[in-house]
Design brief:
Layout: H1 10-17, E1 44-50, H2 54-57, H3 61-71, E2 76-82, H4 86-95, E3 113-117, H5 124-133, E4 149-153, E5 169-171, H6 175-191, H7 196-206, E6 210-211, E7 216-221, E8 224-230, E9 268-271, E10 273-274, H8 284-288, E11 293-294, H9 297-311, E12 315-319, H10 329-340, E13 346-348, H11 357-360, E14 373-378, H12 382-387, H13 394-406, E15 411-418, H14 425-440, H15 443-446, E16 451-458, H16 475-492, E17 497-501, H17 504-514, H18 521-529, H19 543-552, H20 557-561, H21 581-588
Parallel strand pairs: 1-2, 1-3, 3-4, 4-5, 9-12, 12-13, 14-15, 15-16, 16-17
Antiparallel strand pairs: 5-6, 7-8, 10-11
Helix pairs in contact: 3-6, 5-18, 6-7, 9-10, 14-16, 18-19
Length: about 600
């Protein structure tokens, strides 16, 4: 590994770029609480890249945590890079200005490590685009010793084979400790004069959370994986997720950066619990992020107090996969309300479980903004909820919503999923019926009908879950279900119900890529070269591009989404952390016939 030459781009950015973009605040840097070091004085430098726009990336807690941890060390530096919007990309290409970091305005090639957070399958083409805008070959086998090391982490690293042709190293699991261990290993490799391949080989042998794709090969037969093996002797073939043991004392950012452009969430975000005691069979995070760990109420209170003092944000958000299961929630909420009430700082508590928190401790919500309450119902009936292992009873749901109305909530938002295993069209129709009855329930409280927004998504089978073997429902089923819901709403004259449906095309693509393998690299590159960018954004997403990219490789996109895996298949993700296949199959067996 060689030292980098630092290229600072301040002049071209200020003279040829910023005056011509529509939202320059996305690319300025210099915000309150940013960390800016002299990159030349740091032994190892990281460009933390988020493959979406500034407003989205600045709301990502994982990115903020890594930024904080790396910059605590004097020998390390981390700077932020976000995907430039389409207008900015055009200017960068026309003016031949390479993609740059916000803090130092250094080109990405100036950094030793480029790290991507993979949060969704539909951000993959942005990764390729950012590498290309940096002047770095998108394919790892075309890079040289002069190029930065390209790593990736986040939830999609656990099913990252479609990106394996582009990523040098995947960091699986939780990054707080792993990123420092990786930094130390890279520093040792540099001091020892190792090449990048030698360093990668040593890291792969040393850490069970480090997956280096170039050291492994797949063999295929009749479209399925025949074998997965090492390209060199002595390497593991099963990887584990990195895990933070002492969650209580794990470093957490207490000086959140105050964004210049309005972010999706501008608040103090504090993770109070990691892991989820629930085991919803469709949820990858609940199976991959184990075990359950808590921060004490004292620790969370101090983090909130320090973060507010450093930022002035007017909301404290308590985050976890299942905030309702945090054992000190009532005590913590009471303390936070006592400290922040006179400062006009609100408390946001997502992921509340309806059977306890709303019914038994309504005083908890004295400090919570009551503009809207969100409940992930997922399925309209108890039978289907049992299949997906979401133990929510109608009696608890109705009691909880009534208590919420009495506590002052004005609006309700319900999340539903359509296309689940075992679902019938009657189950789909009942989505409207359940929402209708919950809206009418408010009449018992104040004589008015509740206003309910219903968000309907389409089931996508996820890796590392018991449903990961199953096929996605065909497009015509989703279209029929959508029309059935709208017809039923019309029949009931339920104007107080509003339905918003996720994009079916995006869900199909997510299913095709999410359970894909290395052969999808050609599809990803073809789609990107055809112009695929920001596929999570409706105004940019073009399904026809993806259909053409799949066809270019002799494949059918929708057939890939509907792929059903046999229980004895080698799965493209089974080596990449997560629960053992045998464990998941104990939850999967009853679903095989669906």
């Amino acid at each position: 590994m060689k030292d980098k030459m630092i290229q600072i781009l301040t002049v071209p950015i200020e003279q040829e770029f910023l005056p011509f973009v529509r939202r320059p605040g996305r690319y300025l840097g210099g915000e309150v609480n940013q960390s800016k070091k002299d990159l030349r004085r740091c032994e190892l430098t990281f460009a933390l890249c988020f493959p979406d726009v500034y407003e989205v990336g600045m709301s990502n807690l994982g990115l903020a945590i890594l930024y904080h941890i790396l910059n605590q060390r004097d020998d390390l530096a981390a700077e932020r890079v976000f995907a430039p919007w389409t207008d900015a990309e055009q200017i960068l290409r026309e003016k031949r200005i390479p993609l740059f970091s916000l803090e130092s305005r250094a080109s990405l090639r100036s950094f030793d490590v480029i790290g991507f957070s993979l949060t969704n399958e539909l951000c993959y083409t942005n990764v390729l685009n950012m590498l290309d805008l940096a002047g770095i070959s998108v394919r790892r086998d075309e890079r040289t010793e002069e190029d930065p090391l390209v790593i990736a982490g986040g939830g999609m690293a656990n099913c990252g084979e479609p990106m394996a042709a582009f990523i040098d190293l995947f960091v699986l699991g939780e990054g707080e400790q792993a990123i420092l261990e990786l930094a130390d290993a890279l520093l040792s490799a540099r001091r020892a004069g190792q090449s990048r391949n030698e360093a990668l080989r040593e890291i792969a042998a040393r850490f069970d959370w480090a997956y280096v794709p170039q050291l492994y090969d797949f063999e295929y037969e009749n479209g399925r994986i025949r074998s997965f093996r090492t390209a060199e002797p002595g390497l593991r073939t099963r990887f584990e997720n990195a895990m933070v043991q002492d969650f209580e004392n794990t470093p957490a950012p207490t000086r959140p950066i105050v964004p210049f452009a309005e972010a999706v969430h501008e608040r103090v975000s504090i993770e109070i619990m990691r892991g989820c005691p629930g085991r919803c069979r469709f949820c990858q995070a609940s199976y991959c992020r184990r075990p359950i760990r808590f921060r004490s109420a004292d620790k969370v209170f101090e983090l909130a107090r320090e973060s507010y003092a450093a930022s002035g944000f007017d909301t404290i958000s308590l985050l976890s996969l299942s905030t309702a299961d945090y054992p000190h929630l009532e005590e913590l909420a009471t303390r936070l309300h006592g400290y922040f009430a006179d400062k006009h700082v609100g408390l946001s508590i997502p992921s509340l479980r309806v059977d306890q928190q709303l019914r038994l401790v309504p005083k908890l919500f004295a400090s919570v903004r009551k503009s809207g309450l969100t409940i992930a119902v997922e399925a309209a009936g108890e039978r289907l909820r049992q299949i997906i292992n979401k133990p929510l009873k109608d009696s608890d749901l109705f009691a909880a919503v009534e208590e919420a109305y009495r506590a002052g909530w004005q609006k309700l938002k319900l999340y539903f999923m359509v296309g689940l295993p075992g679902e019938t069209l009657d189950d789909v129709k009942e989505i409207v019926g359940l929402a209708y009855r919950l809206a009418k329930l408010r009449q018992k409280v104040d004589g008015r009908t509740g206003a309910i927004n219903c968000a309907v998504s389409w089931f996508v089978p996820k890796p590392h879950t018991p449903f990961g073997w199953l096929a996605q429902r065909p497009r015509d089923y989703f279209e029929q279900a959508r029309q059935l819901i709208l017809d039923e709403k019309r029949r009931r004259n339920a104007r107080f119900l509003r339905f918003k449906f996720h994009n079916i095309d995006q869900s199909i693509l997510e299913a095709a890529l999410g359970r894909g393998d290395r052969r999808d690299a050609d599809v990803l590159e073809a789609a990107w070269r055809r112009g695929a960018r920001f596929d999570l954004w409706d105004e940019c997403f073009d399904y026809a591009r993806w259909q053409a990219a799949f066809a270019q490789g002799g494949r059918d996109l929708e057939a890939a989404a509907r792929r059903h895996f046999a229980s004895d298949d080698i799965l493209p993700w089974e080596h990449l952390g997560g629960p053992a296949k045998s464990y998941l199959l104990t939850h999967h067996d009853p679903m095989i016939s669906d």
